[in-house]
Write a structure and sequence with these properties.
Blueprint lengths: L5 H6 L4 H52 L1
Function: Required for the export of heme to the periplasm for the biogenesis of c-type cytochromes.
Pfam families: CcmD (PF04995)
Keywords: Cell inner membrane, Cell membrane, Coiled coil, Cytochrome c-type biogenesis, Membrane, Transmembrane, Transmembrane helix, Transport
Length: 68
């Protein structure tokens, strides 16, 4: 489909509102998905780091009890 002007391209033969709305919603959904994935990844990594730190403290405490 060839368009004669930019405004014809934006109008999309009268369906421009629906076309651009669908593109906008799709990109919004993709952005939300990426942001949510990054946030969950960071939360998981933080939890793993906390668990490892806790395990190291427990082992250190157990070693201290064993030397007494």
């Amino acid at each position: 489909m060839a368009f004669e002007s930019i405004s014809d391209f934006i109008a999309m033969g009268g369906y421009g509102f629906y076309v651009w709305l669908s593109y906008g919603l799709t990109f919004l959904a993709l952005i939300i998905l990426v942001v949510n994935s990054i946030a969950k990844k960071n939360k998981i990594l933080k939890n793993v780091e906390q668990r490892l730190s806790r395990e190291q403290r427990i082992k250190k405490a157990q070693n201290m009890e064993g030397t007494l």
